[in-house]
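chain below, 170 aa
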Amino acid sequence: MQPDDASSKNTNEETPKQEDALATAQVEAMEWKDKYMRAYADFENSKRLMQKDKNSAVTYANEKFATDILTVLDSFEQALATISAVQSEDEVLNKIKEGVDLTYQQLIKVLEKNHIKEIACEGELDPNLHQAIMQVESDQHENGHIVAVLQKGYTIKERVLRPPMVSTCK
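prediction:
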């Protein structure tokens, strides 16, 4: 029975060491779990804030442009008020022309300020920029060159906002 006593003695001696190791491992596991939970919470908060910022940016992306375009609306309203106050037909026509011209210039400035530019439509058709909607015969233009612009096109910064619709030479 002595061998059994020796093995039970080893087991009894190892048990406190194992219990200490187990307790230490459990404490470490709890610390790691706590760190994980905090990191996960931080991640979720960051994700939520980024989504909120993204939604806000999308919602208000055109706010600056809309504010700028309101000045053009003001000009149209002033022109209409001025026309109503004028008595003579010749004077009305002159005021209309003057008001439309000033409003057009103001609109061009607003578009330029917001990086919206007209696409040039001279020379050879560029399928990345132009949309050819018809072909015509012309002795004055080379084959594949733009003959006429049917609708102007515009870019916003480097992106095509609306391609110009053009006719090309056969």
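The chain has three helices and six strands. The mean pLDDT is 87.
thats it, cya
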